[in-house]
């Protein structure tokens, strides 16, 4: 019988294989790579993982992942708080920031409506968005426009229509990114100029 | 349209096959379970990117595939059309985990979507079990329309695919609303269903309008074929049975149909107006909220529609003889060949699986006449004697034995 694996090694293999897209083979390869690599590489990874959980949080305003609350974007006085760009995922914020076209603030839904997967509006950060908009109406900078930048697929469209129905009665402008984004795709993969054009050419829902 | 060459790897009982079709008519002879039908199904698969009779798709990958490091099956064909040769390929690879396999499509060696395959090779397949078109469940008749129309019209296929996605979401949502005890009048019901209603109506209207238009072309052709095949004076009629009022049936029309009071139309119906259909379907959904919530499912739309076959006023499914049902099914398939040619300007490859043995001399004659209208026909038979010596002399003859094909055969 072969020598059993040392406990720390098999622990690490186990941990890796729980990650998405990583099978047992890749998990072993990664574990043995770290075992043989310079200490610095393994320790850096360990520190990064620890900080990921200890030093990140959800911004209480926009629900984006941040290292401070409110996040840098929400706290920035240069950003226009009356225009909110609503996205599905934190990565979509990065995609739109890269265009440098948008000077407003964000709201991250953490998903899209998908009845087949059992995801309804109550599973998204819609209630938080409603509270945020309502609160703003009492201030000097009430929200005036929601730009719905959900993905250009069926689930994204369903989410956009739902938000339009919900927020238009409050007197808000609800707009959608212009068509021209590759349909069926993800926002985060759209190239910068396409995304910038979609943003400037947005239309009323 | 002409299939020049066909390659199979591990497709059903074929380990490896490389077959050339040099002549317009190919006659495949072989005993039962030797692979005649599998060969026709492979060609039909290449044309439609779907299994021909809703069989379990994993049966596509044959047992011999397990000899390979990565189990797979492949259908590849060379299609000639107006002097241009296109190479089509479908590769099936077994998934590493779970059941089933992934399907990859290549056109001229370049990876493409399944949708891109449609229309590059068109085929009409007729098999003995196609009598189920008349006798079987409504889903068989819907599938018939969908497979025929997808080959003719990619727009149809796009709308159909979208419709099916929307339908799955909408059914899930209706189930969830039912479990949550939602009432039809509640604002959240309208808010959550609104988008799916609109989408279902939009894509459903396109599907329905196209089906009606296709049927308007197909129906008289089928009636004419039927008359020739049967020699009888009763006229074959095909009625479309919708699940909501499409607006062109007249006030009594839909009620009569839904109640099963079928009668031959006195005059051809004008097809419904597509733009109106969406509005009508959406209105129907809104007025039937309570029923749909109770059922937890979408009750109206093209996914629930059906066709009815009549001989004069008599419904064939309930009152026809076996022979009459078979003749009607064959008439429908032969009419499909002509309807497809009329819609696309190009004749499909006609695939006839063991049809002759069931027919008398007169009907055989009619089938052979249909062969002369297409560029290519591939037929199977258990006995060479099913075909006249004259026909055998004109056909390229092949014998199928245990997944192997060799040239030759009886004169
Ligand atoms: Zn924030």
Model description:
Chain A has 2 domains: 49 residues, RecR Domain 1 (Helicase, Ruva Protein, domain 3, Orthogonal Bundle); 140 residues, Dna Topoisomerase Vi A Subunit, Chain: A, domain 2, CATH 3.40.1360.10. In chain A, helix 5 packs across helix 8. Chain A has 8 helices and 7 strands; from the N terminus they run αααββαβαβαβαβαβ. Helices cover 44% and strands 13% of the residues of chain A. Chain B is an alpha/beta fold and 411 residues long. Chain B is globular and about 70 Å long. The longest helix of chain B is centred in the middle third of the chain and has 44 residues. Classes of the chains: A alpha/beta (205), B alpha/beta (411). Chains A and B meet through helix 7 of A and helix 5 and helix 6 of B. The structure holds zinc ion.
Bound ligand species: zinc ion
- Count of separate structural domains of chain A: 2
CATH superfamily of the largest domain in chain B: RecF/RecN/SMC, N-terminal domain
Q: So what's the overall shape of chain A?
A: elongated
Number of domains of chain B: 2
Q: How many strand segments of chain B?
A: 15
What is the subunit arrangement here? heterodimer
What characteristic shape of chain B results from the CA principal axes? globular
The level of helicity of chain A is: 40-55%
Concise overview:
Chain A is 44% helix and 13% strand.
What are the key terms here?
heterodimer; A: 205 residues; alpha/beta; Helicase, Ruva Protein, domain 3; Dna Topoisomerase Vi A Subunit, Chain: A, domain 2; 2 domains; 5-stranded mixed beta sheet; two-stranded antiparallel sheet; elongated; B: 411 residues; Rossmann fold; Glutathione S-transferase Yfyf (Class Pi), Chain A, domain 2; 6-stranded mixed beta sheet; 43% helix; 22% strand; globular; binds zinc ion
């Amino acid at each position: 019988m072969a020598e059993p694996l040392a406990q720390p090694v098999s622990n690490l293999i186990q941990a890796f294989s729980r990650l998405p897209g990583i099978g047992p083979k890749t998990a072993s390869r990664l574990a043995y790579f770290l075992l043989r690599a310079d200490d610095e590489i393994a320790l850096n990874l360990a520190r990064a993982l620890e900080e990921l959980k200890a030093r990140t949080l959800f911004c209480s305003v926009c629900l984006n992942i941040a290292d401070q609350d409110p996040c840098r974007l929400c706290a920035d006085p240069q950003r226009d708080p009356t225009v909110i760009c609503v996205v599905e995922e934190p990565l979509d914020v990065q995609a739109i920031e890269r265009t440098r076209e948008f000077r407003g603030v964000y709201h991250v839904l953490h998903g899209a409506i998908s009845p087949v997967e059992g995801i309804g509006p109550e599973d998204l950060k819609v209630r938080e968005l409603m509270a945020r908009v309502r609160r703003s109406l009492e201030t000097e900078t009430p929200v005036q426009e929601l730009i719905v930048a959900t993905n250009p697929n069926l689930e994204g469209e369903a989410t956009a229509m739902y938000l339009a129905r919900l927020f238009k009665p409050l007197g808000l402008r609800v707009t959608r990114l212009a068509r021209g984004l590759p349909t069926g795709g993800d926002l985060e993969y759209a190239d910068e100029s396409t995304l910038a054009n979609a943003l400037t050419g947005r239309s009323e829902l | 349209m002409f299939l020049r060459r066909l390659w199979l790897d591990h497709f059903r009982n074929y380990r490896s096959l490389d077959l050339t079709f040099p002549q317009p008519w190919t006659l495949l002879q072989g005993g039962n379970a030797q692979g005649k039908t599998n060969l026709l199904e492979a060609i039909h698969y290449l044309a439609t990117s779907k299994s021909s009779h809703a069989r379990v798709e994993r049966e596509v990958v044959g047992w011999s595939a397990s000899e390979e490091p990565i189990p797979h099956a492949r259908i590849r064909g060379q299609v000639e059309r107006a002097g241009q040769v296109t190479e089509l390929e479908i590769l099936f690879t077994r998934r590493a985990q779970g059941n089933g396999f992934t399907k990859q499509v290549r056109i001229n060696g370049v990876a493409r979507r399944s949708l891109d395959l449609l229309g590059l090779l068109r085929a009409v397949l007729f098999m003995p079990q196609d009598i189920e078109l008349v006798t079987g469940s409504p889903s068989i008749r819907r599938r018939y329309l969908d497979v025929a129309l997808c080959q003719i019209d990619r727009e149809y296929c796009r709308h159909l695919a979208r419709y099916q996605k929307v339908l799955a979401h909408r059914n899930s949502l209706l189930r969830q609303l039912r479990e949550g005890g939602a009432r039809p009048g509640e604002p959240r019901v309208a808010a959550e269903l609104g988008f799916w209603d609109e989408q279902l109506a939009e894509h459903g209207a396109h599907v329905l309008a196209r089906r009606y238009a296709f049927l308007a072309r197909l129906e008289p052709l089928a009636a004419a074929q039927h008359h020739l095949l049967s020699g009888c004076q009763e006229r074959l009629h095909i009625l479309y049975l919708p699940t909501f009022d499409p607006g062109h049936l007249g006030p009594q029309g839909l009620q009569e149909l839904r109640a099963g009071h079928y009668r031959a139309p006195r005059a051809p119906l004008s097809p419904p107006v597509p733009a109106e259909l969406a509005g009508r379907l959406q209105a129907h959904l809104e007025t039937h909220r309570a029923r749909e919530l109770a059922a937890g499912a979408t009750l109206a739309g093209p996914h629930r529609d059906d066709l009815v076959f009549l001989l004069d006023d008599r419904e064939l499914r309930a009152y026809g003889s076996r022979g009459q049902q078979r003749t009607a099914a064959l008439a429908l398939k032969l009419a499909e060949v002509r309807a497809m040619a009329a819609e696309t300007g190009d004749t499909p490859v006609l695939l006839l699986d063991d049809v002759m043995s069931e027919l008398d001399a007169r009907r055989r004659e009619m089938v052979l006449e249909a062969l002369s209208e297409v560029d290519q026909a591939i037929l199977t038979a258990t006995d060479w004697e099913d075909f006249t010596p004259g026909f055998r002399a004109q056909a390229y003859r092949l014998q199928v034995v245990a997944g192997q094909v060799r040239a030759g055969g009886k004169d």
